[in-house]
Structure formats: structure tokens, C-alpha cells
Amino acid sequence: MTFEMQQVPTPKNSSQAPARNYSKTTLKLLFGLSGNQCAHPDCHEPIISSATEYSDVKVIGQIVHIYAHSDGGPRSKTGLTPAERDAASNLLLLCPTHHVKVDVQHETYPAAMLLDWKERHEKKFSGKVTRAITDVGYAELEVAAKALLTTRTPPDAPSLKQIPPKDKISKNGLGPSIELLLTMGAAKSHECEEVIRKAAQLDPQFPDRLREGFVQRYAKLRSEGYTGDELFLQLNEWAGGGEGVEKPRGAAGLCMLTHLFILCDVFEK
Asked: Which residue in 164, 233, 241, 261 could disulfide with 245, CB within 3.0 to 4.6 Å?
């Protein structure tokens, strides 16, 4: 499906806005948690219009920046990087009517209000991910864990160390969408621990190799410039097996990634 997002004209008093740069993983998260519905609390307009006898299916929803895409735009916030402006945590899907309203009457729709809409809307429509996680069993978690392994254990690999998840989320500037994914993924934390424990009985180095696989991928993505929400989404895509995998396998990757996120002393600024 082609994402063809219409844009509201830039206000005359704003500076030239940089090009928008939404990654595939960001778009997948936005649409996956949208419930195919405008995020305005009183609106039920679809984001994607179904095919008709004469027309193909079309994306009619529009991406709204909670904090403006440019310093002079509606709800502008200085100091944000281009990546932070286009991160999933700063984006909302609305119908065309409400997109125009929240931007041209931005005083009526402050950022705090839109953030609240986003959090409540995504929680409401997170059922598909929750159902996929429910279907995850030991076999899927084992496959996901083995996919994260390195081939060897570095001699100086530190032990797994627990860090309060809330502190880690805050320290890395992860948004409500990622926090929601982490909350859902944590539902299988006990099963993840069991997979690691049983594997360690046969391969004592398994936990360290698992951690190191996660650390190496994290470091690679950091070196490529990924941070915050987008870094987590890239890790989730990798842990879930990439495009085209069955839902339980992808959900198992999220569960194992969540478990490692909580345990490992990485993913920090």
C-alpha cells in the first residue's frame, strides 16, 4: 500500500520546514495502533478507505505533528532534532478535517491535549498486538532468543543487571507508543526467563551470548544514527524476524526484546 499523506499548508510566519522523513517502522507502528480510526476522541472516521467498485483502497488519514515539524509551525518546540520531530512519539493519525482543525486552531489544541489523545487512542486499539502475544508459546520464544545470539561470548561480557524500566524509558526519551509495546511485551517475561534458564542448562554461556547479540545490534544501530523510539523500533523489527514472518514469531521477538531491555545495562544515553 502506498502512503500518500496530504499536508496542511505551512503557516506564513514559519521558517522553511525540513523534509519529512517517516521510516517504514514508524509508519507500521502508527497504523498498527490506529485501529483504522481518527485519533480525535469524538471521531470515528477511518484512516484507510476501503476499495470500491471503481477505486482502490486509499490512505485518507493524515500524519499530524504533536510538536511542530518546524520551529515556526503550530505547537512549535525549539531544540528538537529532525529525528525527534518525525519520531513515532511525536506523530498522530487524524482524519483530514481534524488535521486541519488542530493545526489552524492550534491554540485550542495544545501539545499536551494531543499527547493525551495519542496515549488513550493507542491503548484502546492495541488489541491486535495483545492477541498476537497471547498466541506466543515456548517454541516461538526459543526461536526468537536463538536469533539474537552471537556466535561467541566476549571474555569481558558483564552480567545481566536489572534497571528500573520506568527510569530507562525516561532516560532514553521513549514515547508512549514504545512504553505501550514494552508493557505488552512484558506479559511474557516469566516465559522468556524460563527459555533462557533451560537453554543455560545445556549451554552455560547462552545468557551472555544472548545479551551480547542484543548489545551488538544496539551498537550497530547507534552507529548508524538511530536513537530513541526509532532505535527501539529497529531493534523490534530485527528481533521479530523482519518482514513477512507470522504474527506469533514477530510477537515473540517483542517479548524477548522487552525482557532484554529490562535486564541489560544497555539502551541508555
From this structure: 241
